[in-house]
Every structure is written in structure tokens, then in C-alpha cells.
Amino acid sequence: MAKKLSKVPVVIVGMGWAGGIIASELTKAGIKVVGLERGKERDMSDYSMVHDELRFQHREELMQDLSKETITHRNNLKMRALPMRSYGTFIVGEGLGGAGSHWNGQTYRFLPYDFEIRSLTEKRYGKNKIKSDYPIQDWGITYDDMEPYYDTFEKMAGISGETVELYGKRSNPYPTGPMIKTPVLAEFEQAAKKLGYKPYMIPSANLSENYKNPDGISRSACQYCAYCENFGCEYGAKADPVVTVIPVAKETGNLDLRTYSNVTRIVNDGRKATGVIYVDTFTGEEFEQPAEVVVLASYVFNNVRLLLNSKLGTPYDPKTKNGVIGKNYCYQVSSGYSSLYYNDREFNIYGGAGALGIEIPDFAGDNFDHSDVNFLHGAGIRTTQYGNRPIANNNSPIGTPSWGAEFKKQSIKYANSILQVKSQGASMPHTQNYLDLDPTYKDVYGMPLMRMTYDYTAQDRELVKYMAKVTRSIAKKMGPDHIDTVAEQGDFNVNTDTNTHNTGGVIMGTDPNDSAVNTYLQMWDAENVFVAGSSAFPHNSSFNPTGTLGAFSYRAAEGIVKYLKKGGSLV
């Protein structure tokens, strides 16, 4: 029997970017909040002098323990799903800050096209352009509606960047200027301009200069140390909930932060939630935390899994196409890239930062004519300089043995002489790609695991073929001695694919029949439950999702304040 605690106005499940932003905004408004985080407490001192590639990159210290909880995966309904035993394609953060502590910091806005994708596609190309097995839908809100929230997030995080044509209008420039343009990025810039493209520096949450945000949080500029993804930043240069919004919430005195608190279900009557059940992971004790409002702000898989295990909302059925919880799971499409090898040139590719890069907007969204192609949306074409740490990076041309003398020879030869022109493509939803509960496998608490049914679609494969030609054309202009281009998209493999961006499962919209939440991320089926994070995205753009996740978190916080005052549906 769970011990019942005193009721609070708001309980937040997960204290990463979404939970941290919402906690900060609500506590500043004088609202008492309980924040539940299943991992440990962190502050910036925990990141000090921890450039340990083995510990963080390869042993995944900041990540969820897969021996206690994981996901299962299958490519289609005919296959048996099997548990993911080690991290490959994506990594799920655990502990205060969540994925916001170990992310790279690339901070884009989604395009105006993204928010009205169905309407704008049909307007330009006709209704037959969208095939029936792709449940693509408008989000129920426009870019112009979201622009002020983007602006708020960027000022809080101190995003470094430059204004770009072909994207939506901005009310303000980025709060700090773009990062350093290294010789590697200059190579890409020169080649792209020769082809008539418009390269720009990637917007970065790695600060280009010292910065003090509107909440009074001061942070230092990036040192280009190359320890961003999978690592916390010891300088505080990388925007992280632990060094931005969570300290603000703590300072108000209105945040009751409880770490090592793993939420297992939402208490509800099918129409409204009354609180959550969580387990103290040290003692095994179970507690019930009543609340007027329950906010799910965890990772995509955890948000969906909590709702399904709590029997809240209608599960999606791929056979009937009915139901909304688990619907429109999307990933990102990253094949189509070209690797460039130089025999007589070297670059300082061991220095870098997680959002140090340059790309072109020409093939993103609907910025080019799709009349004669068999796919929608597009890709960001880019070169990045993350910093090639020595253990993980042993690059060699396709066909080189994966071990032995020849592998060593080629790895040494190209250690400082390989660049990439990358493609990160949008992911459109498909009726057969979805999330549900696994009927066989359970976690350490006996709760069913999340099952992912996902494979790349015909849309994805056509996108890769097209973008491979673009990356190769830019690569040729950069003058390497050898180019390898991945021009075909293989089947999805949860252990080897390389992108980390997951979206969907609790998607937003204007109709309860095809969406789970409204544009304030308030559930249609339970008005006092808000589900924040990229689980709300009806599709995934070609851009990294964090900037859009942050913008919607500010909007959700605004909605929660309104709900606490008046109740009822916000739209």
C-alpha cells in the first residue's frame, strides 16, 4: 500500500528541459510544485574535471540503466520485439537535467511549414501528394503563434546564432553571436557558396560569449573542449536545466525537488488525475502524491509508457487506425551523408563543440520544389565539428577491415584528415510506426516495457537518395582525395542507427479523434494532465527538437497557470 502524502497544486514527472522550464515558470508565479526525478541530484560541480570518455561516452554514466528498464523493438507487426540491451541509436538520460544535461546544444526552430504541413502541402501540390498511410496533420498552431515562446527559450538559454533567410520571421536576433567559424566549417562554406547555396552557422546553446540571461543566471563562454554530447559542461557554457531553469525554481522556495523518485503510474478515474504513484529507488517504499495538476515531462518513451500503464487515453491500434496514445512515433533520417578523405591535408578535428557547425537551409522543409520527388519535407545539409575524441573515432574508408593491421593503418592515416557532409532528414509519421506496451517484457518493478514498432518508410528511402546527391556534390567541391557516400537507407536497427531524436506518441492537434493533447499540451481525456516534451510533435522536422520542445514547455506553463485559475479545457 502506497503511503499517501499531502496534496499539492502541481506535481511534475521528470526534471529535464520540459520539467525544469515548467517548474521555473510556475514557481516564479508563486505556485507550489513537487518535482519528481527518478535519477540523482546534480549541479555544475558534478561536471568539474570529468573529461572521461570511457566513463561517460562508453559506459553511459548519465543514462538510464538498461538492466532495470529499457525498450523493446521490432521493425514490423510480424516480428517479435526484443529488448534493447545496450545503447546504440539513441540514449535516454537519467538524473536531474535529463537529456538536457548530455545533449549537444544544437537549437533550431521548426519551420512555419512544419506547423501547417498538411494544409501547405495540399495547397501547393494537391491532396494526392500525401499518401493515405502517412497520417500527416497540422499541429493546430502556427509558427507566428509560437515565435514569442521560441524567443523566450532562446533568451533563457543564451542561444548563439545568426538570422537566416528561408526560415520564419524573428522578433529579435539571437541573444549572442554565432560560434567561431573554424577552417573545417570554412571549407564547407566555400563549397556551398560555389553551388549557389546559403550557408549559415548552426544556432548553438554552447555560448559564443559570456552571457547573463533575463533570470539573472550568468554563464561562461564555450572553451571548445569537445566534451558535449554524453557529458555535462564543467564551464556551464552549454545550456542545461541544471545551470539555468532549475536553480531559478529552487531560489523561489516553491519547488520541492525529490530525486530517486521513479513514477510508475498516474492515479486517475479515466477522466481526471488525482496524483501519481512513485517508488523511492533507495528504500523501495511506494508513495502516492496527490495533486491538482499532473505534468508528464519525461522522455518520449516514458511519457507514452506512463499513460498506457495508467490506462489514461486510448491506445493507438495500427490495424483500425483508431486511438491516439502511441500514434505517430517518428525518428530522424540521417543516411545520405558523404565522408571526405584527404591524403595530404590535416585539420584540428579534435577540438570542437556539440553545436559547432555550418549548414544550408536550401533543402529543408518545402524550401525547394517537391513536385517531381516522391517524398515530403527535406533535410539539413551540414558539416559539424564536435571534436573527435580518441576512443570513439577510428574513421577509415568503406571496405576497410574493422580490426587488424589494415584497420590500424587507415585509422592513423585519416585520424586528422576526414570530414563529413551530413544530412539530417525529417521523419514523417506512418500508420505502422507506433509505440505500445510489450506483452512479454517488464521492468524491475513488474511494469510492461515500452515496445517500439518502427522501420524506415518509402518516403525516408527516397529522401536519402535525393540528399545523397546533394551531399556528394558539396563534397566534390571541397576537393578530397576520396569520397564515400551512403546513398541508400537500410532497415532501422535499434543498436546501430546514429540519430538520437525521438518524437510523437502523445501528439497535439485540434481534434481529440486524431490527437492526445491540445496546443497547451493539455490532455483531451483528462483536463488536469499536461504532457510536455517532444512526445507532442505530430512529426519530426529535419531539425534537432530541443528548441521546439523548450518553446512548447513555456506555452504549457502558461496554460497550467490559466488552468489553475479557471479550470476546464484551454482551447
UniProtKB/TrEMBL annotation:
Record protein name field: GMC family oxidoreductase
SUPFAM superfamilies: FAD-linked reductases, C-terminal domain, FAD/NAD(P)-binding domain
Domain of life from the UniProt record: Bacteria
Single GO MF annotation: oxidoreductase activity, acting on CH-OH group of donors
Keyword field: FAD, Flavoprotein, Oxidoreductase
One matching Pfam family: GMC_oxred_C
PANTHER family: LONG-CHAIN-ALCOHOL OXIDASE
Signal peptide: none
All residue ranges annotated as the Glucose-methanol-choline oxidoreductase C-terminal domain in the record: 429-550
Protein family (similarity comment): Belongs to the GMC oxidoreductase family.
